[in-house]
Amino acid sequence: MTRIVTSDEFVTLILATLAMRGKEVQLRDTELDQSFQDAYEDLARCETDLGVSSNFTFFTDPLHGNSTKLRRAIVWARDCGFLKPEQGRRGLKYLVQMSPDLADRFLANSSIAPAFLRGVVAERFPERSSDQVVA
């Protein structure tokens, strides 16, 4: 049976996969929409193989340069405490605030294969020199 994946679930699973890196992860606001749109397109291409179906899109509105559906999911993740907005030198960024235990629980109950999520995160959310090791 095909499982439905919501935008909130997809964002949460991406954040959980990022949290499993073992580093403090910073997501720049200016890069969020394109990274998540690319990740969504990867999901859309593999839905049949993964046995899932998404009920959303993260396509970026060319007029405004962002995705309304993604922004709603980001606000939801922030309200849940999974993301912390912070004003940096280069503009707004979000810090992933999910414990490894919580991330592991989300991934253990994921409707999307964790191996697929790790591949998407590695390709679409590359580590940067600004990512700092959590002590």
Describe this structure in words.
This protein is an alpha+beta fold and 135 residues long. It has one domain (3-126): Arc Repressor Mutant, subunit A. Helix content is 50%, strand content 19%. It has five helices and seven strands. The chain has helices at 7-19, 29-50, 68-79, 100-108, 114-124, and strands at 3-5, 23-24, 26-28, 52-54, 83-88, 91-96, 132-133. The protein has a three-stranded antiparallel beta sheet. It has a two-stranded parallel sheet with strand order 1-4. Strands 2-7 form a two-stranded antiparallel ribbon. A hairpin with a 2-residue loop joins strand 5 (83-88) and strand 6 (91-96). The longest helix has 22 residues, at 29-50. The radius of gyration is 14 Å and the shape is globular. Residues 129-135 have low confidence and may be disordered.
Outline the fold blueprint.
Blueprint: E1 3-5, H1 7-19, E2 23-24, E3 26-28, H2 29-50, E4 52-54, H3 68-79, E5 83-88, E6 91-96, H4 100-108, H5 114-124, E7 132-133
Parallel strand pairs: 1-4
Antiparallel strand pairs: 2-7, 3-6, 5-6
Q: How are the strands ordered across the major sheet?
A: 3-6-5
Reported for the largest beta sheet, the result is: 3 strands, antiparallel
Could you give the count of β-strands? 7
Radius of gyration: 14 Å
Named at the architecture level, the CATH assignment is Orthogonal Bundle
In total, the number of domains comes to 1
Helix content bin: 40-55%
Beta-strand portion reads 15-25%
Q: What low-confidence regions span 5 or more consecutive residues with pLDDT below 50?
A: 129-135
Give the class from helix and strand content and strand pairing: alpha+beta
**CATH domain class:** Mainly Alpha
Helix and strand run: EHEEHEHEEHHE
What overall geometry do the principal axes of the alpha carbons give? globular
Distance between the termini: 43 Å
Total number of helices: 5
Determine the CATH topology: Arc Repressor Mutant, subunit A
Q: Can you give the mean pLDDT? A: 89
